[in-house]
Amino acid sequence: METPVLDDILVQLRAALERDDLTGAAAIIESLRPPDQADLFAELDDEDQVVLLPELNPADSADILEEMDDEEAAELVSILPTDTVIRIVDEMEPDEAADLLGDIRPEQARAVLAGLEDPDEVRPLLLHPDDSAGGLMTSEFLALRRRMTAGEAIQAIREWKPDAETVYYLFVVDRYGRLCGVINLRQLIVADPDTPLSEIMDTEVISVPVGTDQEECARLMARYDLLALPVVDPDNVLLGVITVDDVMDVLEEEATEDIQRLGGAQPLDRSYLDTSVFTVTRKRIGWLLLLFLTATLTGSVMRLFQDELQAVVSLAIFIPLLIGTGGNAGSQTTATIIRALATGDVDLGDALRVWWHEARVGLALGLGMAVVAYLRAITWEHDPALALTVSVSILGIVLWATGVGSLLPLLAARLGVDPTVVSGPVMSTLVDATGLFIYFTIARMILGV
Hints:
Blueprint: H1 3-18, H2 22-30, H3 34-43, H4 46-52, H5 58-67, H6 70-79, H7 82-89, H8 94-103, H9 106-115, H10 133-136, E1 143-145, H11 150-160, E2 169-173, E3 179-184, H12 185-190, H13 197-200, E4 208-209, H14 214-223, E5 228-232, E6 238-243, H15 244-262, H16 277-304, H17 306-311, H18 319-343, H19 351-380, H20 384-414, H21 425-447
Parallel strand pairs: 1-2, 4-5
Antiparallel strand pairs: 2-3, 5-6
Helix pairs in contact: 1-2, 3-5, 6-8, 7-9, 14-15, 16-21, 18-20, 18-21, 19-20, 20-21
């Protein structure tokens, strides 16, 4: 739904709440699709949310909580009466319910779990970390027996009455519950009703262990165009299924975290406008202070070469140009390598090939920049020796920046650190100090100062 239309509906919703017309307000929310419901609900004050949510149909309340940020949903649920929470959680998908229960107070989670109609659907999911395959999977799936016929399988689906998101693929297990095949609806429909599933199923099933990281699950599903991914235990027993809608949430969450880290800040746990000023400050101040302290290296280098600066004052004119170019070249390289790591184009074993590739790119870039730098320098200061110093320096700095930028993300990944941490500001700060050292060293050699 378009934003202007939602804005008009929000005005109507707030007007109904001001009149204490909770029935009318609930009707407005229930007439919308789940994403629009969540967007409008998020615009309300906390007091209005607490009052309105219990008035909604439990299924709509469940949809809203599933669409909200985890932290916001947990805060809202922690205020509601336990009976209300139970009615809502009963309508949620098992994986979403497990995520919510894992975020609220343990005593409230136990009380809610005890009141659910089928707690056994949710309880096993609470044992796994949220960012693992076990935390991402749903336990609501239909496992077919390999000895069943196509007709029996279709009848089982009719009796199960699955949600749309859980019936992309149907997984086949043996009598011990071990995954042994996969079949899609089209195959079932076109097959003769008396055909055993063992004859039409695909035995080459792509699955993941329960402890697999969620990013790896998302990468696997994207690589093989999967709409559902089975999760198994060490004995290959089918435990659950990850659906494509859950993976889309993972991809969005991981992309958001990476982009925030690219700016040199810790990722936020909730939406920007709902994050307090204190929290945003806390997320940024650590890296800002660290970068400030490392930036003092630049001052130290300038103090080391202060005699050269006093002898040839014109050297200072080109400092912003040189360190800015080096930082930009390094940031371009780190961004490229980080993305290549994320998509699987390169891995830790490709370090030497990556460095050699970027060394040649850096040489080409540096030579091009050196020509432009020489022309720029000779027009500012009519001194061929100084122009040559600037030209050679920018070649050396670009080569250095691309070389370091190619290896830093790989080194971070090897140490178990998110590669995005070494991007942007970190790269620029590092290249600033080392670039100045290169510049003044070359100036000492060429100008003899």
